[in-house]
Every structure is written in structure tokens, then in C-alpha cells.
């Protein structure tokens, strides 16, 4: 992960493409590249939680219903928990990298 760490209003966050995002978080320019999560065995871009849930289930992940505001998965054989925003439109690269780290060689994040 590369970018610039920005401190604003007591919150630190990583701006991945500092040339395309202003310090207040708004996007600039029209040629920004978007990140997508890719299931590498099938080369399929994950476009919904239904697709992601199917892929994770096949890897031994189970849906975890503890928090109604989050879409969560737990793998019994580990202590790992994947927590995602309920709304897929809020699914960001930080969530994608979390999935990649916990499922090495199965998912990757790409720029499109």
C-alpha cells in the first residue's frame, strides 16, 4: 500500500492516490483509476457481496451475524474476522486488502 497519510480533524487516514484526492477527501479529475477485488483462480472481478460470499464460503469462511451494521465472515480454523460495510458501494480498497491478506493467493487487488 502506498500513498500519503493525512491528519485532519483528529483522524489519520491514508490517501492512496494523493494526486486524485484532495485533503478533504473529495475526488479531483476524471481519469482516476478504480481498485477492484479479483478472485484469481477464476479471474473474476467481485461485483457484489453475493459473489464474494460464495467465493469465501468455498474457502471455509462462514457468515457471522453478530453486528447488523456489518457484513462479516469468520473462519473456524483461525481467529480471523472479515468485517465489511453493509452497503457494497462503501466497499473500499482497505476492505479488499483485508480479504487479500487473509486469503493469500486466492484474491488480489487490481487497478482498472
From TrEMBL:
Record-given protein name: Flowering-promoting factor 1-like protein 3
Entry similarity comment: Belongs to the FPF1 family.
Biological source species: Hibiscus sabdariffa (roselle)
Stored InterPro entries: FPF1
